[in-house]
Amino acid sequence: MKTVLVTGGTTFVSRYTAEYYVAKGYMVYVLNRNTKPQSNGVILIEADRHDLKDELKNYHFDIVIDVTAYNDKDINMLLDALGSFNDYIMISSSAVYPEYLPQPFTEEAEIGENRIWGKYGTDKIAAEKALTSRVPDAYILRPPYLYGPMNNVYREAFVFDCALQKRKFYVPKDGQMKLQFFHVNDLCKFMDIVIEKKPEQHIYNVGNRFTVSVKEWVKLCYNAAGENPDLGFVSKDIEQRKYFSFYDYEYYLDVNKQLELMPETTPLEQGIKESFEWYIKNKEKVIKKPFIDFIDANLIGEK
């Protein structure tokens, strides 16, 4: 039985990852402050990753899956605290690529500040550099927008709410902005492959092969709720994030190296249906934003 340490373990990606490996029969430890309910089957190490002392020194982990490393200090503090481990996987971000580079971004592209993501992206770069300097064999995964069951971010859930209320849905400009997604289950499946195959490459873009337009994505979300969207198009100069789930930023990752190891990913339509089914039963777990209030006050009547 393999032993796995998942940092976090109580929300979205870290929680899904912990439960995924519990279901595979692994001994799964989660590292968190125990401020939220724990998943069934995990073993809690109750601690703050920024103040670990000797909590981890007596453990050996076959796999460390670091979902909650946001900067170099997070990496260094955890590595200083760990006893021993075999494999280390860090979930990084596509935010490490500057927006001005040619797209799709490849793993070989330069990394640097992205004007949309700002400090979040530069901190992820610092975390990656700290990890590779200390654990050269670690694996780093750079996803685009992650989605699927347990997503507590108000993205698909916002569209589901609009669909359930049979509201008109307002999209930015002409609705053609492209989005790229990756199902959280596919992320876990790819980690399995990396752990098993130990590929020579250690940094991977991960994501769906194809992008989807905002209009197409909204339609898939409405259809999952049994509705068809009536779309409104916002042409005025209004900050997009006040009424919509995503920044005004279109990007695309080259995921060919991932596809060489894992050719199939979850169809977006299927993944959104899974997201809807989870949301219907877990609405209280999503952190909602006042998009609908803003729309009612500022956009009603837009074409």
In words, what does this structure look like?
- The radius of gyration is 20 Å and the shape is globular.
- It folds into 2 domains: 3-147 and 182-205, 3-Layer(aba) Sandwich (Rossmann fold); 156-180 and 209-298, UDP-galactose 4-epimerase, domain 1 (Alpha-Beta Complex).
- The N and C termini lie far apart (58 Å).
- Helix 2 packs parallel to helix 3 (119-134).
- The strands form 4 sheets. It has a 7-stranded parallel β-sheet. Strands 7-10 form a two-stranded parallel sheet.
- Helix content is 33%, strand content 18%.
- The protein has 9 helices and 13 strands.
- With 303 residues, the protein is an alpha/beta fold.
Q: What are its keywords?
A:
303 residues; alpha/beta; UDP-galactose 4-epimerase, domain 1; 2 domains; seven-stranded parallel β-sheet; 13 strands
Topology:
Blueprint: E1 3-7, H1 12-23, E2 27-32, E3 43-46, E4 60-66, H2 72-81, E5 84-91, H3 119-134, E6 139-142, E7 145-147, H4 156-164, E8 169-172, E9 178-179, E10 181-183, H5 184-197, E11 203-205, E12 212-213, H6 214-224, E13 231-234, H7 256-261, H8 268-281, H9 291-298
Parallel strand pairs: 1-2, 1-4, 2-3, 4-5, 5-6, 6-11, 7-10, 8-13
Antiparallel strand pairs: 9-12
Helix pairs in contact: 2-3, 4-6
In short:
The chain is of the alpha/beta class. It has 2 domains: 3-147 and 182-205, Rossmann fold (3-Layer(aba) Sandwich); 156-180 and 209-298, UDP-galactose 4-epimerase, domain 1.
Return the structural class: alpha/beta
Q: What is the terminal separation in angstroms?
A: 58 Å
CATH superfamily (homologous) name of the largest domain: NAD(P)-binding Rossmann-like Domain
The helicity comes to 25-40%
| SSE series | EHEEEHEHEEHEEEHEEHEHHH
How many domain units? 2
Tertiary shape: globular
Strand content: 15-25%
> Given this structure, which CATH class of the largest domain is correct?
Alpha Beta
Global mean pLDDT: 97
The count of helical stretches stands at 9
CATH domain fold name of the largest domain: Rossmann fold
Biggest sheet features = 7 strands, parallel
Which architecture of the largest domain does the CATH hierarchy give at level 2? 3-Layer(aba) Sandwich
CA gyration radius, whole angstroms: 20 Å
* Major sheet: arrangement of strands: 3-2-1-4-5-6-11
Q: What is the number of beta strands?
A: 13
pLDDT under 50 segments (min length 5)? none
